[in-house]
Design a protein that fits this description.
The complex is a heterodimer of chains A (about 550) and B (about 80). Chain A is mostly helical and about 550 residues long. Helix content of chain A is about 70%, strand content about 0%. In chain A, a hairpin with a 2-residue loop joins strand 1 and strand 2 (about 345). Chain B has about 80 residues and is mostly helical. In chain B, about 55% of the residues lie in helices and about 0% in strands.
Amino acid sequence: MTTTVIICCYLGLLLLLGLVSNRFFRGTTADYFVASRGIGPFLLLMSLFGTTMTAFALLGSTGASFKDGIGIYGKLASSSGIVHALCFFLIGVKLWSLGAKHGYLTQIQFFRDRFQSDFIGLLLFPILVGLVIPYLLVGLIGAGSTFSSASDGKVSFEAGAAIICIVVLIYIFFGGARGTAWANCFQTIVFIALGMVAFAIISSKLGGPVAATAAVAERNPSKLQRSAHQKDLEKFQAALKAYEAAQANAATNTNSTTGTPPETATLTPPKEPKGLPQLVFLSYMLIPLSVGMFPHIFQHWLTAKSASSFKLPVIAHPLLILLVWVPTVLLGTWATSAMVNGQPLIPPGSSPNAVLSIMVNELTTPVLGGFLTAGIMAAIMSSLDSQFLCLGSIFTNDIYLHYKRDKEIGEQQKVLASRIFVVGVVVVAYLIACYLKNTREIFFLGIWCFSGFAALVPLVVAALYWRRVTPAGAYASILTTAVAWIWLFVQSDFGANRGFLFLGMMPVASLVIASTIALVVVSLATPRMDDKVLEKFFPSK
Amino acid sequence: MSSKSNSARMWVWIAILALFVLHQDFWFWDRYEPLVFGFMPIGMAWHVLLSILTSIVCFFATKHCFPEEDTDGTSHTGGEESKS
């Protein structure tokens, strides 16, 4: 009950924020989609950070470190700090500058203009939308489930997801990009603060950080490093021997008696402790590259007041990642060995994603539990809103307005169309989420969506920095990405094989290399673009 | 562009490259000791330090490598909003 009340109060605050932001709305599509390019450094930092950090930053990171140990920090957090900051700096600033000069509202508008090709829009549209939707559904299903479980099932999944959709829809509908930026800023502060408070309370309940780590070193030392520790290997060998002896014993008993195997025969074999392969660690670094092509990040970049507004996000983004990830990774690692009253804190067989919630419920008060759930919702919604808005923007600007360009459409009509499209996107996403709510596999699609976006980054880099890239090279890069992505996805049993590697690396490595080769080879083999067009994007000094 | 700022730019790019190399810390792969502050495994502490270093390098990048022509929004003609 406490949790439900806290969540409702939190959602009420968000609604209020959306309604207040509407007072600043200027009634134009540029204001609706890119806040009239008036967002300053702090809001830009918070909205970019809130959008890139999904619920995975709180729940997933704790779960992943519970499962694999501290290696997850280097694999996802410090690498994201480096790569995201570089993307903001090298891609974001440049795209903002071109967007402000030429009035772009979407990525497709930029690519159509850069390559003087309508076709590239038609090629990119299904790929961008197709890659954003599973990512969006992961958040929406996560939000509905979190709401439902926080209310002990009193609020159904459908009702929970509907409430989240309505709240997000209201502040996007009334506030557009400005409402989204404000809400993101507020939500980011909420989830950073709550993560730190939860960390302080839980670590003190575990006897302090030193005692918590000592328990891990004693019971599960492999979780503190990225290779299997000798102590864990010895434990595994002993468990394996016991298992084999039990199996042999069971077989003997089965043969000699009634044919019914005794209970020991059902024992599951112990899992061999495995380290993190260095090639996987290296290739994982390409996953965060995806922010360079996320359409919702592109839209946030365009909201910046000036290029200088990017300086703070570039500098502070790695530090904010540190603030969120260090506590959650440590909590997940400590959870592997924490004991309460002689029993493991995390019952065997618990889902890794439930680790943080179990720790909060067992070691803190219901009020903090309620706030933490609100923090998880904040992390989910701060990504969902940007994704909804960017899909609305793509449908409005790249399809509806683009193909209606021969007709006069007033600003008010454009804004109305934009709002109708945003409502349409939210309704469709909600219906799909309700249909797929029990399809857990969708959660594993996230990494595939990121890989697809990362493979398109060479295209945007070439469009910004390489005069010699040609439309044919761009098509080749996009088509190679699509074909290679589908082939690898099929090879991985449609994402079901979660440990799928290609040539010992994450599939993203092959995708990025293939798309880059196609881009470069085809561009060099085809005639260069007209100098007049190039002058627009590479003005002579 | 002065040779001093060219040299600063070069150092920033070298530092960025170094961040990528330092990220592949195979030297801390097989151990967790020493524990930094008594609780943080050395492999994790290394990456925390790397996050801080990234921020410092980014500070110098924005100081020395930020595109001069793009630093002032007023130099642009404005986008859609100027047309509406």
